[in-house]
Specification:
Oligomer: heterodimer
Largest interface: A-B, 26 and 21 residues
InterPro entries (chain A): AHP1-5/YPD1, HPT_dom_sf, Sig_transdc_His_kin_Hpt_dom
Number of strands of chain A: 0
Distance between the termini of chain A: 23 Å
Largest sheet of chain B: 7 strands, mixed
Distance between the termini of chain B: 130 Å
Radius of gyration of chain B: 72 Å
GO biological process, one term (chain A): cytokinin-activated signaling pathway
Strand content of chain B: 15-25%
Helix content of chain A: over 70%
Structural class of chain B: alpha/beta
Number of helices of chain B: 31
Function (chain A): Functions as a two-component phosphorelay mediators between cytokinin sensor histidine kinases and response regulators (B-type ARRs). Plays an important role in propagating cytokinin signal transduction.
Pfam families (chain A): Hpt
Protein name (chain A): Histidine-containing phosphotransfer protein
């Protein structure tokens, strides 16, 4: 039980720090609420889809921006997609980066786009890292026989 | 007397001081009574000291009085003695003086007739007889004698002349003589002297002293010498008389041979002296004789003393009894300055006891002791009462502590039960969300209901405990009465619909919209009364009316005249007037019209809840408001409840300065009526909730303003309720009694109603007529066909009307009518968007679950994450979700006939966006519908749906007005923002869900 308690505390501290630092927002809590006994792996599923989807989108974005003639509309579409999925997961910083990214797309500013691609990429890997840690913690708690604390 | 007054004044001073002291103490005690309670013992001792002082004081006083009075008596006695003594002394003196004067007169007689004549005119015989005959004049003398002055030279001659020799009396005095033996002849002749004074004349009583030389006697000699020197009467000291041997004195006067001037010298007097006249006073017998003449001689004893020699007074009269009692001394003056005499008087008897003084003082003492006793008893009593009081205080404290402990216990236990109960309820709630079979779900529902019942019971008990401990306070906030009643209505709507009981609320338009008071508690009363009514009513109605008290008085008179069966459901009801017959508000109203004028700010509401239930048995009516009393144990078993609801309600009504009453007729129904006082709402800006409702209603009212409605209802009371609710939306209502009149109303030009409400009862009565009416409405020549609604109080399906080509049932509005429900129904059918903002998350989530449960919903989104999340959310509410990633996929899935109840579609999608896909779906639907209408396809084959129109809701992250307009333009039914919000989802889903349930004709 002691281990569970420790893990739970660690989990709460960690997720709180994520909220505090703006990596995640309320949508992640909503996501957690949607997970129930009939759908126990919901969050993991959604997050892993988000990871796959995002990596694909980032690749697409990178290749699009490396084209001789950059199709900004296409780029905008990708960014929009990325924005939608990140907001669905609650990855706030990625979403914010995407919003700014889209402005550069509208301006057809290749430099800005390139810079923001890097930023978005950076933010994405950061949040991916964090979320993986979080999910791993959850797994550990569950394996130790505890329950994942709910964050209000 | 002075001592007495002094004592009293002293006593007075002491008394005054004491009184001051006491009163000071009282003054001190009285205001600081509480302070003294602590030092009771001290005070007790103090009182005891005071009591002792009191007793001692009064003992002293009574002794003082005793002393005073007895001394007064002694004084009086002394005075009496003095006056008696003086009187006796004066009498004695007077009589003595009389005798003395007489003897003096006799001396003059002798000088005149013995010495003045030659030969003498007086001899012994003459003298004796004269004196004998004048003895009455000298009451005090026992005898008179005259002795002549004889010088030695003349002795011989004198002896010869008289015939006897001069004899001396020394021996006589030395040897006691007896009267019988006494003989002057035996006496020795007088020895030779310078001069002699032999007695020559004597009264017979003293004849034995003739020839005796008075100068030879010591006493007589002195007397004689003094008498001739002074020329006045001279007295001897008392001595034993010759012969009689009694005490006596002799008074001697000198007889001069010529008249002497009054200032003659003593030698002249001696020289002129010729003889001596002596009177013998037998003092003893004389005084006795004198006293016998006076009254009350027995009372006092008299002693007479010669006090010439002060150191050795000679007793002249009186027994020498030693008596140290009181005596009085009076001086006697017998005319001889040389001799002093005194009379001593004393009482024969000892002074009597001063009974008066003794009784008086002892009476005073007894009174004082009695007062002391009373005082003591009082103090004891006070002390006892005080002790009892303290004991009571202790007990009271204990009782209060126990009461507080009880309330505390109740509150704590209630709270402690509530907390885990919330956990239990929450868990049950969550359990409901999981995959359960029907039996399990039923179990859980039962458990949940039991839990809720338990929580409400605990709340009631908590309320009761609060009431008992007097810690119940009302809020004063601004609230909307109608909104509260609507809330309560929706709370009971399910139950009433289930039972088929008509539930209605009517609020008089005179009642202000905004009131200030405690909405929660008002709601509690209403909920309680309505809950009871619905619980005990199986058929008929439950009707709540709210009026102003002023208005209600008139209203009741009107009601009295109207027929008795004109109630909401037509069933007889208990007379409402009786339920509030005893209300003070009414008597006030009748007696003085000042009611309305004096309290302009006050709103006196009268609320009555009327039902057609089983009523309260007569024998149970008296204890309806008693806590924990129910009609009978069987009621508790069948209907549950604690039986404190009404007691709490009554208390709440009292807190609202109102009264509650009821009338109940078994098997007919009960009517509960209460009054409550509120104040006019001065709407507070902070009061978010009511503000919001108000705004919402206002904005909605605008949408329906200027609309006209036709209400077909044969029953005026029910019509009144419906009109009240419809008019709240700003719609003008015309009421007709039946459909025939409805035809007439519809036919009239330029007054075609926008909406027609028909009571279900009217509709079902004559279906042919109803159909006719429906067709009439459709054939009306106007831009918008009037919308038709049926008003029903039960869920049971409305009988469909076949109108030849199409089968159609008008929209049904389930009673109880309330503003929100009407708005929703009207908006739904008239397509007026609701842009209001609901904020009631919890309720929505629940309702959402009910709305979405088992619904088949297609979600279209190219973003896998979004798709997944949306699906999760909808699944969470029990929907059956199908996912699609492409618009084309959606189109193929939604090609009629299909089994989807709704579609959520992302707008921005690659290849084909949401707008495009929706357009295509709508095109497909319309062509399919046409084919059905044209009879190419049979309705029965395609789920009995005559018109295919799947609700499509856009999912968009950008909630911009333009987007939503575009959504509607391309045939979408609404939009929801991404990520999903329960609120918004509910609103949109509730819109389309109804269109699924009741197809728009």
């Amino acid at each position: 039980m002691e281990i569970v308690g420790q893990l739970q505390k660690q989990y709460v501290d960690f997720i709180n720090s994520l909220f505090r630092e703006g990596y995640l927002d309320d949508q992640y809590v909503q996501l957690q609420k949607l997970q129930d006994d009939s759908n126990p792996e919901f969050v993991v599923e959604v997050v892993s889809i988000f990871f796959e989807d995002s990596e694909k989108l980032l690749n697409d974005l990178a290749s699009s921006l490396q084209q001789q003639v950059v199709d900004f509309k296409k780029v905008d579409g990708y960014v929009h997609q990325f924005k939608g999925s990140s907001s669905s997961v609650g990855a706030q910083r990625v979403k914010n980066a995407c919003v700014a990214f889209r402005n550069f797309c509208d301006e057809k500013n290749l430099d800005g786009c390139s810079r923001f691609l890097n930023l978005v990429k950076q933010e994405f890997y950061l949040v991916k890292n964090k979320l993986e840690t979080l999910l791993r913690l959850e797994q550990q708690i569950l394996q130790a026989g505890g329950t994942v604390p709910l964050i209000e | 007397m002075s001592t007495k007054s002094g004592l009293f004044s002293d006593g007075g001073k002491i008394w005054m001081k004491l009184w001051e002291h006491i009163s000071q103490c009282f003054c001190k005690i009285h205001p600081h009574y509480a302070l003294y309670i602590g030092s009771r013992k001290v005070r007790k001792n103090w009182w005891r000291k005071l009591l002792v002082a009191w007793i001692v004081f009064w003992i002293l006083i009574s002794f003082g009085i005793l002393w005073c009075m007895s001394s007064q008596a002694v004084e009086k006695r002394k005075e009496a003695l003095a006056s008696m003594c003086d009187e006796r002394a004066r009498m004695l003196q007077d009589q003595f003086n009389v005798s003395m004067n007489h003897i003096q007169a006799m001396s003059v007689l002798i000088a005149t007739f013995h010495h003045g004549k030659n030969p003498s005119a007086i001899d012994q015989i003459t003298f004796a007889s004269y004196t004998e005959r004048t003895a009455f004049d000298r009451p005090l003398t026992s005898g008179v004698a005259y002795a002549a002055r004889v010088l030695h030279s003349e002795r011989e001659q004198f002896e010869i002349q008289q015939g006897w020799t001069i004899k001396r009396m020394d021996s006589v005095e030395q040897t006691p003589v007896h009267e019988d033996e006494y003989d002057p002849a035996d006496l020795e002749p007088s020895p030779v002297q310078d001069e002699y004074a032999p007695v020559i004349f004597a009264q017979d009583t003293v004849a034995h002293i003739i020839s005796i030389d008075v100068l030879s006697g010591k006493e007589d000699c002195e007397n004689v010498l003094r008498a001739r020197e002074s020329g006045k009467g001279v007295l001897t000291a008392p001595f034993r008389l010759l012969k009689t041997n009694r005490l006596g004195v002799i008074l001697t006067f000198a007889v001069y041979k010529r008249d002497l001037p009054p200032y003659a010298t003593s030698s002249e007097r001696i020289e002129a002296t010729v003889g001596y006249l002596g009177g013998i006073f037998d003092v003893e017998s004389l005084v006795e004789k004198l006293l016998q003449q006076l009254a009350s001689k027995q009372v006092i004893l008299v002693n007479v003393y010669d006090t010439t020699n002060l150191s050795d007074p000679i007793s002249m009269y009186g027994s020498n009894i030693l008596n140290d009692g009181m005596r009085h001394v009076s001086d006697l003056n017998f005319g001889d300055p040389f001799r002093k005499h005194e009379m001593h008087c004393r009482f024969k008897l000892k002074p009597p006891w001063p009974w008066v003084a003794i009784t008086t003082s002892s009476a005073i003492l007894v009174i004082a002791l009695l007062m002391g006793q009373i005082f003591h008893a009082t103090m004891n009593r006070i002390a006892k009462v005080e002790d009892d009081y303290h004991e009571m205080m202790e007990l009271k404290k204990l009782a209060e502590a126990a009461d507080v402990a009880k309330s505390q216990f109740l509150a704590t236990v209630s709270h402690e039960i509530r907390t885990p109960m919330n956990g239990v309820l929450g868990m049950l709630h969550m359990l409901m969300d999981t995959d359960l079979d029907e039996t399990q779900e039923d179990y859980i529902r039962t458990a949940q209901e039991s839990g809720k019942a338990l929580v409400s019971l605990i709340n009631e008990v908590l309320d009761q405990a609060k009431i008992e401990s007097g810690r119940f306070e009302l809020e004063t906030v601004c609230f909307d009465l109608k909104a509260i009643l609507d809330d309560v209505l929706s709370l009971f709507s399910g139950k009433s619909q289930e039972k088929g009981v008509e539930l209605a609320v009517y609020v008089s338009d005179k009642v202000p919209a905004k009131l200030v008071g405690d909405p929660g508690r008002f709601r509690q009363i209403i909920t309680n009364l309505m809950g009871n009514s619905i619980k005990f009513t199986e058929k008929g109605h439950v009707y709540v009316t709210v009026h102003l008290v002023e208005e209600a008085v008139n209203l009741m008179d009107v009601e009295m005249e109207s027929p008795s069966n004109s109630t909401l459901s037509g069933l007889p009801v208990a007379d409402r007037r009786q339920s509030c017959a005893g209300f003070k508000a009414f008597s006030q109203e009748e007696s003085a019209p000042m009611f309305s004028s004096s309290s302009t700010d006050q709103v006196n509401l009268i609320v009555s809840v009327e039902d057609t239930g089983q009523g309260i048995p007569l024998e149970a009516q008296s204890r309806v408001f008693t806590p924990f009393m129910q009609v009978g144990p069987s009621i508790t078993r069948t209907h549950g409840g604690t039986g404190i609801g009404l007691s709490i309600s009554r208390f709440l009504v009292q807190l609202m300065k109102g009264e509650i009453g009821f009338v109940s007729l078994p098997q007919i129904g009960s009517t509960f009526t209460f009054t409550a006082v509120f104040t006019h709402g001065c709407c507070n800006v902070n009061d978010q909730k009511s503000q919001k409702i108000n705004n919402q209603l206002n904005s909605i009212s605008l949408e329906f303003r200027e609309m006209r409605a036709l209400l077909v209802d044969p029953r005026p009371v029910r019509a009144k309720v419906s009109v009240y609710h419809i008019e709240r939306l700003g719609i003008h209502v015309e009421v007709v009694r039946d459909l025939d009149k409805g035809f007439f109303s519809v036919n009239t030009e330029n007054s075609i109603p926008n909406i027609v409400f028909i009571e279900r009862e009217v509709w079902d009565k004559d279906l042919a007529l109803s159909t006719l009416f429906l067709n009439k409405l459709r054939s009306l020549d106007c831009k918008v066909t009037p919308k038709l609604f049926l008003l029903s109080s039960t869920i049971s399906s409305t009988r469909a009307i076949s109108t030849g080509s199409s089968v159609s049932t008008p929209s049904v509005i389930l009673k109880p009518l309330r503003a929100s429900l009407l708005i929703a129904s009207l908006q739904r059918s008239m397509g007026i968007g609701n842009r209001g903002n609901h904020r009631n998350g919890e309720l929505r989530t629940l309702s959402l679950r009910n709305l979405l449960r088992g619904r088949k919903i297609l979600v279209v989104d190219d973003n896998l994450v979004n798709l997944k999340v949306a699906a999760g959310a909808l699944k969470k509410y029990g929907a059956d979700v199908v996912l699609a990633e492409r618009g084309k996929e959606a189109i193929s899935l939604l090609t009629p006939p299909h089994h989807f109840d709704a579609c959520f579609m992302d707008i921005q999608m690659p290849e084909m966006d949401g707008f495009e896909a929706t357009k295509r779906i709508r095109d497909m639907e319309s062509s399919f519908n046409n084919r059905i209408h044209n009879g190419e396809l049979s309705v029965e084959a395609y789920r009995n749906i005559s018109t295919w129109h799947v609700p499509i809701l856009a999912m968009t992250a950008d909630v911009i007005q333009a987007t939503s307009e575009e959504c509607l333009k391309c045939g979408m039914d609404g939009y929801v923002s991404k990520p999903f919000e329960a609120e918004q989802l509910y609103r949109e889903v509730s819109r389309f869900s109804h269109t699924v349930l009741y197809e728009i004709p």
